[in-house]
Amino acid sequence: MSDIAIKVEGLSKQYRIGKRAPYKTLRESLTGLATAPLRHLGLLTHPESAEGETSFWALKDVSFEIKKGEAVGIIGRNGAGKSTLLKILSRITEPTEGQIRIKGRVGSLLEVGTGFHPELTGRENVYLNGAILGMARGEIAKKFDEMVAFSEVEKFLDTPVKHYSSGMYMRLAFAVAAHLEPEILVVDEVLAVGDAQFQKKCLGKMGDVAKQGRTVLFVSHNMTAVQTLCQNAIMLAKGQVCNQGPVAPVIRSYMADMAPRDRDVNWAKPDDAPGTSALRIKRISITPEEAGDGNHGLLTMQSPVRVDTEFWSREPKAKLHITYHLLNDQGITVLTSGSPSAKRENGTYCATFTLPGNLLNSGGYFLKLLIVEDESRVVFQRDAIASFEVIEATAREKAYMGRELGVVQPPLVWNIWPANVSGQVRERNSQP
Amino acid sequence: MSQTVTMPPSSQTEYEVLLRPRKGWQPIDLIDLWNYRELLIILALRDIKVRYKQTVLGAAWAIIQPFVQMIVFTMLAGMGNIDTQGIPAPVFYFCGSIIWMLFATALTNSSNSLVGSQNLITKIYFPRLVIPISAVITSLLDFAIALAMFFVIVLVYRQPLHWQMLSLPIFVALAFFAALAVGLWLSAMNVEFRDVRYIIPFMVQIWLFITPVIYPAASVIKPWKRIMLACNPMTGVVEGFRWCMLGTPWPGRLLVVSMASITVLLIGGLFYFRRMEKTFADLV
Question: Which of A13, A62, A128 to mutate against chain B (most B CBs within 10 Å)?
Fold first, then answer.
């Protein structure tokens, strides 16, 4: 295992859950002790089993290997076992079964500012926190100026941190953490805090660490960050590894798992279907235009979005049309589009339109349906009749990993050239 | 978690760890503890720095407590006619009070230390033993201040200085280990049973009365009572400390028995602590 940094074999962790408080009271334990001999003789049943205590496997038979210098993202829904895995890797808690072989010093950041004391000054806390993270005093002293510069709190170094704003506190805490240089770095979702500016700085620093050839284990819900920082990913579900390998396909399978299910809605009988007696909706389906491009039907920011509507027409004399409002998850109407208005023979019809790719920002979207008579009267409407999620699934070159602001996010081409040159030589710089 | 090879955290050499479930009783990993000595010191310094923050009287509290105790005991002694072995009562009581206070504060601090360090225990690895030890170290500060006050009192009462005073570190160390021994048991129990927190104050109170702080051990005559007295780890320490500071009679066998009981409690405490350690992060 010369080039393997972490080897996890059959790792399991069991927690007890149940009606009982997480800690016992002495009385319970004493009664337990007193009845122990009787239980041994089989005269009494165990009182705990009678109370319906159950156990729960946070991790079950997890095995994987991580090579030296590899940056691996660990993804999964809440409660999938990501944090438990990090806690075991960080030696905070012990596995119930299985083992982990680790080569190299592990530095873990399950939280920034662990051990910070509000009464101590910024300077004192830097030394305290550094020591808690496993840095030697000399090492902290050597990097002290760098940390302070990174944190931008020079002026308040000798002020107790209880007087800091939360932003200053976070910056100082992260500055110490960012200068931890272990061979293996284990990071939990610590970067999900602070403003956009701060996140940008933190992720930039994380990127540097990964590029220096350190082994990094990174838990995050920010897929853009995982995609940019890591080459490989491990997806956990219900305490087990359900997918691992190069980062892009693992993330796609995770996103497919997370995507809302009402991208395809249909009604079997006209009687329960939404609509009026003249027009009822049979089916609405939202798909990426180019299916089969390996995206598992995911809607990325690049893919054109095709909306298919099937409806029953049951009143040939009515002049009707369908209109959709597209709303984003903040409730802002992004656009409105209506079909041509017409009188139609009884029967089933298909209507379709396509939203261009490279237009919508990432996030959730809803379709609101309206049925309009004589191009003027709304005879039926239904909010959020279907919904879909647009994801950002490409790595970014910039340091910022958060969602860009804006309702739409079409990639725009930037041209930049020196103002004194007559425009002959232009530097073309495209910025998706 | 057992380690195959242990290296100092700052070492550049190949470092390998094997993490797997531990079964049964394990000895304390003293090498690992030594590697984290810097953290131990820095945590103790942190507690010392914040100890008297935002108090008006500050470090004076370290003197006020034994001083008030001295006055109360002196008044009690005046009523009860207790023999103070030829030493002026205030000096006799102040002497016993400061070594007792060291033990009582260290014991209380260390017993509550793990529960008070929840945020560290659930977020980062280090030998958990660092926490109760640093809590005991912190209590030495108060003792040092009170000790300075003691010498002032000795001068005021024109008591002689003795050559035995040179053995002071031995008795401080004994009080230190006695407090740590009990603290290990109680701090580990406190993680699981929060009842301990309520037991400590009155346990300390009762313990004071079964320790020869208010009275000399010599005033206990019945043999079975003397054996009981000697088993109390603090008996030898307090008697020895008075021998060292005031030149009262050498405690002899009392000290030997007390040292033996400290050793038993300490070794047992270390094993118990180690056994419970693996569950701290899950239970605290």
Answer: A128
